[in-house]
Amino acid sequence: MTYFRVHTGDIAYLTGQPRGLFTAVGKLVDAKRLSGEEEKEYWKNRAYFEEILPVPPFYEAGNPDRAVTWFKDTEKGRRVFHEMSFYRRMTEKYGKKLFLSSCDVPPGTVIYEDEYQIAVKDPASGAPVTTRELPWPIREVGDRDIEECVKVIRESFGTVAREFGITVENAPRFTAFAVDAERIDWHMHGERRPMFGYFLEGKMVGYYSLRLPENGACELANLSVLPAFRHRGIGEELLLDAFVRARELGAGKMTLGLVEENRVLREWYESFGFRHTGREKFDFFPFVCGYMEKTL
User: Fold this and answer.
1) What does 101-144 look like in DSSP terms, one character per residue?
2) In the listed set 114, 133, 152, which residue is the last one of a domain according to the structure?
3) pLDDT tens, residue by residue, 62-102
4) Is residue 236 domain-shared with residue 157, that is, in the same domain?
5) Domain that holds residue 188
C-alpha cells in the first residue's frame, strides 16, 4: 500500500511536520487573505469534506500524540485528492508552494485507520518517503490558448470518431471535425463559458468548458484528454475540478451529452455518479446522442 500527503513547506507547531493542505488554507482564512467570495467557497468545501471524510477521534482531544494523517493511494483516496481543487487553487493564488509526499509503508506508528486514510505518530526516520513539488495544472484558458484548445478537442474526439466509424462525410458537425478557432472564440467571448486547460510543462493536454447554469443545471462540454496522456488520472482530475467550479457557479446539477454507443465512456461517467436520462437520434449523425446528469 502506498500512502501520500499534500502539504506546504511550513512546519506545523503541534506536529513538527509539514502543514497539510486543509490546515494551510484554513490558516489563510484565519489571516483574512481570501476574498469574501473565496471564503464562502472555503466553508462550502470544508462542509463537503467534513461530510465525506471520517474525522479521526484524536482531534477532539487536541491531537495529544501529534499525529499526522496520510491518504491511502486507493480509488477513494485518489478521488479525495482530485476533489481538493479549490484548496490547491487557493494555495497557488496566495503563494503557498505545495508538495506531494508518498511512502510505500506506514511512515510511523499507525494509531488510526479508515477506508480513506491512516494517522501516524512518531514518524519513522528511516521511512522511504519521497517528496516532489505539486504545481496546480488546471487554469482558465485565454485567447492565446485557443489553437491549443482546438487541437486537444479534435485529437481527443478523433479517437471516438475512428472507433465508431464517424467521418467528416457522414457527420461533419461532430466535435472532432466541427470545432475550430472561431467556435472556441465564440464559446469564450460570445457565450462567456468558463473554459479550462490541463497543462504539463507548459503544454495543454486536457480541456473542458462549462455552459453557464440554466434552471440550476450546468452543462459539461468537450471534456478532452490527448490520447498520449490518458490513463494518468487527468480526465478524473478535470471532471472533479468541473464539479467544484460548477458548484461555485451556483449549479446544483451537471448535464452532458455523449455518443450513446460509447459504453466505456458512459460507465466511466456513471462511476462518478452520473445517471442516464435519455437518448435522441438526429438525421445529421450516424450515432445516437445520449444524455446524462449528476446532482452536485
Assistant:
1) EEESS-SSEEEEE-SSEEEEES--TT---EEEE----EEE--GG
2) 133
3) 999 999 999 999 989 998 998 899 999 999 999 999 999 99
4) yes
5) 138-295
